[in-house]
Write a sequence for this structure.
């Protein structure tokens, strides 16, 4: 029996949907969003309505096919730390995501959209390999201040998909290898994979290098002065740090293709910012080599920032001594969601309950 699976992936700067018959693509659609599209969106309901309309518009092109869908799978949101695998989307999960109980990211609205579509088609709606799937050990959790614990918030789907591709290319099993994977998209996470587990990594919102839109880690003393100045509300600070930071704050855009072209055209500031991004990414990659005790089968780069040659050249220059560098610019998150959904439909994996 062939299984029809609808998948949804809400990212920081894009909406992706796809329909698959088993692993064969029926249709896929990616809609990228500009800063102008996203800047008016502040509250959960605004983000939900925006992405719902994008998804609905995409689905209307293929309406008749959807009637036979067997399962809906969404990228997870920032829930409490949970194991990897499949979870049924329920009220407890939706409430935590709506109120940002464990953090805010546009992906928080994905499960709500999947839930609405599940009710429409009278099928189950699940998340798979949540971005907060937590495999970190006790050493990795220590932050440096009692009462604040480092948390797992990685691009788990993209991370594990890229690591599995690398393992296949090297002729080994993912569970046998050690990899450093850098997901380089609208958000950036850099993780150490040890024998099939992500044992440490940079938090996608509050740590690591700056991204097209986020600041990444900042000098703490200056941040305290910034926050204590009284000039900004919490909402304004959130926007500055998480959606108008990074490359956008320096150059007024998060369109990496445009920034790369500007650098090629001789814009010295664009060149400096791109080189600094590569420099910061390289530092985090090398720190993950220490996490793996120097045992690294490959450094893996994935995501659309890989198309910025200035960034990749800098990373190659600074990290090639560690291990072979493998690059997969195309993210494979929709396919990863499908594989998870198929494992559920084929009774190879059970669906857990979020409580």
């Amino acid at each position: 029996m062939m299984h029809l699976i609808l998948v949804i992936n809400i990212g920081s700067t894009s909406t992706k949907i796809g329909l698959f018959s088993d692993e064969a693509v029926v249709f896929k659609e990616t809609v990228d969003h500009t800063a102008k599209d996203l800047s008016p969106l502040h509250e959960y309901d605004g983000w939900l309505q925006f992405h719902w309309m994008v998804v609905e518009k995409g689905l209307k092109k293929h309406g008749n096919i959807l009637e036979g869908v067997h399962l809906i799978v969404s990228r997870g949101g920032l829930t409490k730390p949970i194991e990897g695998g499949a979870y049924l989307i329920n009220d407890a999960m939706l409430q935590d995501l709506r109120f940002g109980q464990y953090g805010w990211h546009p992906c928080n609205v994905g499960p709500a959209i999947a839930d609405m579509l599940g009710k429409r088609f009278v099928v189950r709606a699940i998340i798979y390999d949540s971005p907060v799937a937590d495999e970190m050990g006790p050493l990795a959790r220590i932050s440096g201040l009692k009462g604040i614990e480092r948390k797992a918030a990685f691009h788990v789907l993209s991370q594990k998909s890229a690591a599995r591709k690398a393992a296949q290319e090297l002729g080994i099993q993912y569970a046998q290898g050690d990899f450093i994977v850098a997901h380089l998209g609208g958000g950036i996470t850099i993780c150490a994979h040890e024998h099939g587990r992500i044992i440490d990594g940079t938090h996608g919102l509050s740590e690591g290098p700056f991204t097209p839109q986020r600041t990444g880690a900042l000098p703490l003393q200056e941040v305290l002065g910034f926050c204590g100045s009284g000039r900004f509300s919490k909402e304004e600070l959130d926007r500055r740090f998480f959606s108008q930071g990074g490359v956008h704050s320096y150059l007024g855009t998060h369109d990496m293709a445009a920034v790369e072209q500007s650098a090629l055209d001789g814009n010295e500031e664009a060149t400096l910012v791109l080189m600094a991004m590569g420099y910061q990414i390289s530092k985090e990659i090398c720190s993950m080599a220490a996490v793996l005790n120097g045992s690294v089968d490959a450094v893996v780069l994935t995501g659309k920032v890989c198309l910025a040659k200035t960034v990749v050249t800098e990373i190659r220059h600074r990290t090639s001594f560690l291990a072979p560098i493998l690059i997969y610019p195309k993210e494979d998150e929709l396919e990863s969601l499908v594989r998870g959904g198929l494992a559920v439909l084929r009774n190879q994996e059970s669906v857990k309950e979020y409580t």
